[in-house]
Amino acid sequence: MKDKRFYDFLHRQIPVLMVLSLFPGLGYLFLGWLNDIFMPAFVWYLLVIAVALWGYRLYRILDFDAMGESRRDHWYRQCSWFVYAFFLLWTLIFLLYVGQDAYKLHYIAIFTEIGAAVVASSLLASDRRLYRPTIFILMVPLIIYFLFIGEWYGYVLTIFACTLTWVLLYAATSSHNLLMQAYHQATHDSLTAIYNRQYFIEHLQTRMNSLSESGEFAYLLLIDLDHFKTVNDSLGHDIGDHLLQDVVARLQQQTPAGAVLARLGGDEFIITGGDFAGRAACEQAALELSANLIARLKEIYVVAKHHLYISASIGVSIISRRGANAGTFIKEADIAMYEVKAKGRDGVFMFNEEMSARVENRLEIERLLHFALANNEITLHYQPQLDRTGRVVGVEALARWNNASLGSVSPAQFIPIAEQTGLIVELGSHILETAFRTLREWHDQGIELDQFSINLSMRQLTHYDFEAQVDTLAQRHLDAGLCRKLMFEITESIDAEDINQVILVMNRVKQLGIRFSMDDFGTGYSSLSYLNRLPLDEIKIDRAFVCVLGHEKEGQAMVSTILDMAKILKLNVVAEGVETAEQFDFLFRHDCQLFQGYYFAKPLPQDQFLSYYRQRQSG
Ligand code: C2E
Ligand code: MG
Ligand code: MG
Predict the structure, then answer these.
(1) CB-CB neighbours of 567 under 10 Å
(2) Residue 337 and residue 112: Cα distance in Å, rounded?
(3) Which of 314, 395, 431, 563 is the most buried (most CB within 10 A)?
(4) Residue 547: which H helix or E strand, with range?
(5) Fold of 195-351
(6) Which atom of ligand 1 is nearest to the CA of 456?
(7) What is the pLDDT of residues 275-321, one digit of tens each?
(8) Which atom of ligand 1 is nearest to the CA of 603?
């Protein structure tokens, strides 16, 4: 356990030992003078001063954080020799006094020796390699002395001294074990018995200091299990705990010798290791280790008869620079790990500066988004939807954010952030209110549309207040006829656990006459099963399929299949992202009913949309 605490403890004992030798030492000098052995006592005291000066020097030079591993080892060896020398001097004064005729000196010598042994067993309990030899250095001469008395009481004293030696060793060992136990508890995770966060951060700081001394590189792997919460929530914490223990067993198998594995908390683990001369070799080793870890973790687990599967997301950072603290590298690995999560989990990313810039940009967006509504920075643009005759029969409302310092931010950027931070609820209700009001105003101005589409986030839809909100807004701005024009667009990113609640909400909202559309159809992962279960009225073929029309056979097959299927399921179809005449032709020939895309118009501010609408209707 040679960590910072160990060194600190040893460090603190040095002045105590110095004081314990310099001051009582003066008394022995005086006794020597009284008993005509001043010279040897004086020489002895000079040695005491020399050893004390040595101790003082050792006390001064220890700087745990700044010293590398080898310098610390060197210090520890010196410190051990200092301790041995210190107690050897007490044995020396013992030998000097028992060599005299005066019996009073013998009593003092015996007391000195026993006292020193007690001091050694209590002050040095943290380190076996110190207290064991020291107790022997002190007690063995005493035992021999008693033995050489040659009388019966001498033998009795010998037995007592042996017993005392054993007791001192026993007491020191008990304290030592207790210390070790407390140390273990403070530095290890109780569930998995690997190191905990606190130990890891200290260890990392120490490693970094030695790396900056040697100029070498090490890696840091932050491992987060994917969807572990689902296991905990669905199967209970006992199974979750078991799974974590199994995961740790596998991590331990894969952790290379010399590397350190720790649990940061929950389902997050961290490994640091390696001392590579070059960065490239370090990166490669880290990526190889990550790939092995992921492969091993993904093998099936059997916990209490449940067959479980779990994957992991790993972020890697390389420890190299001087000056940075341990937290910086953990944060970097964390950023890389979140990048993996954002890109669909189950993988590994190496941290780079561009990632950090992106994270900062994201945080800035998040910060400013909080004020966007109050500052009236969110507006709606409207993209026309045309029928087969070229008339504008529908519109999709799309959010726009214009910020003084960020400029115009794409909804593809700020909507996901609003979703993750929960701001989407507030933002979404502002968008709903604006859209409802606009629909009413247009109706009053004689703008007749068949449908008015509004995008919804799942988080917004599943918010407890959503239905009440829609109901209130509908009563405030619309009537039954206008409600039937509303089309709520949802995406396929519905979590399996939420689907029943989503269906419930959709059905209640539909009672107001509002319809639902599946946006970005074909890009999600379980489109067909959703189509069956969700009460949908329309699907929007994703831009990704439309844009390959004309040059990719598979794309064409896909689009015509979707169109055929929609016909069978009696769903309306909107083709999104129509950009060319060729794409439009293909869709037209395959009986698509509604079209939306730059080929006709981009999303437009309200006034421009209205002129576009009028121009189209009259044309
Ligand atoms: P979406 O609902 O699929 O919207 C269509 C996106 O495609 C819009 O991007 C639109 O400008 C763009 N687009 C339309 N026609 C074309 C085309 O011909 N070519 C190309 N290249 N792009 C075209 P936008 O406005 O940037 O919105 C991105 C996404 O942000 C939307 O995808 C939607 O998922 C989300 N979003 C936008 N507004 C809102 C909103 O008010 N609420 C919610 N929850 N999400 C919104
Ligand atoms: Mg949409
Ligand atoms: Mg779309």
Answers:
(1) 12
(2) 62
(3) 395
(4) none
(5) Alpha-Beta Plaits (3.30.70)
(6) 44
(7) 899 999 999 999 999 999 999 999 999 999 999 999 999 999 999 86
(8) 11
